[in-house]
Give the backbone structure.
Amino acid sequence: MKIGCVKEIKNNEFRVGLTPDNVRAYIAAGHHVYMEMGAGVGSGFSDTEYVKAGASLIDNAADVWHLVDMMVKVKEPLPCEYPLFHDGLILYTYLHLAADKQQMDALLAGKVKAVAYETIQEKDGSLPCLAPMSQIAGRLSIQEGAKYLEKRFGGEGILLAGVPGTPKANVVILGGGTVGMNACKIAVGMGANVSILDVNLKRLEELDNLFGAHIQTLVSTDSNIERVLRDADLVIGSVLIPGGSTPKLFKRRYLSEMKPGAVFVDVAIDQGGCGESSRVTTHDDPVYIEEGIVHYCVGNMPGAVPRTSTIALTNATLRYGLMIAENGLEEACRKSAVIRSGVNCYCGKLTNKNVAAAHGYEYAEID
Ligand SMILES: NC(=O)c1ccc[n+]([C@@H]2O[C@H](COP(=O)([O-])OP(=O)(O)OC[C@H]3O[C@@H](n4cnc5c(N)ncnc54)[C@H](O)[C@@H]3O)[C@@H](O)[C@H]2O)c1
């Protein structure tokens, strides 16, 4: 199969769909890989590395789109890329179609076979191509929080770990899923006092078994949240209700009860945020201060570390991509319900129930 990869053109997106190691894996499996020149530069991969891995370089994106059977990307195609769709093209990338009718209509009209990373679901219900981004956002949340606790950013001016003879910082994590657990790992590693709150008792038990005496686990109730926030130096918002809107656990009235200069990193902002005072910020201008509390609400946190993010993402996407390339999409779907779960559009038909429901479209099975 002819596999292609173009440079991402979305604002501030530096990840790339294929690393040189991925190229090597596709070529070893008997495929051809066409890379747009400079596609990997934002993630620290040079054209020379891709050529050494066996890729053919092409100097413009349109030629790559026209040439290939399967395009491997990171973000959804932008409107200027829609005219490059062709009948039967396999598009393998994040799509988020439930929130993007224009793109969905373009994929249907272009008769593209679109496989979305975010809906690929393993038998145990896990979303393997989404998890690495939550791991990164969770770990990064403590790193960013520690930075914005510095005085020059409006923070309290404290070091998370303290030093002998000074208090350690109190870190509060709202939601102990993938983001929360990874935030917890880094905060504990840095020597902070950590409280983690969740509604899922089984999850709290797992966290307790994992981190033992290093953390305090609490059931997420309004009174527990209010109590721990009063002493918090750094708060991480990492709650998710799959398919539902994020509950506003961090009420505006708590702000005035907190320590001035405390930092709130609302990782859940991409789903609306779990703070009443949260509003989306960008990497260019990541923080604002409200009632003395520093708010960091960047919706695409992994974009800050594109090299790690690219490697983590492609570690997850490569194996499914190889299965599709080896079998063709139809046979891959027959062999694997996991691949099938990723197919959102197929030759003009909408093949994901949730996306169809979100837009009131008819759902169809792949033939
Ligand atoms: N900003 C970014 O760049 C970025 C990157 C990755 C993920 N995210 C977002 O981070 C959020 C968390 O993602 P995740 O992968 O950790 O999800 P997850 O499903 O693994 O974890 C969510 C946790 O929230 C808990 N929860 C639900 N209701 C709660 C409540 N009322 N109080 C406390 N806990 C509650 C759940 O029990 C679960 O443990 C999501 O909104 C996700 O989209 C943002």
About this structure: The chain has a mean pLDDT of 96.
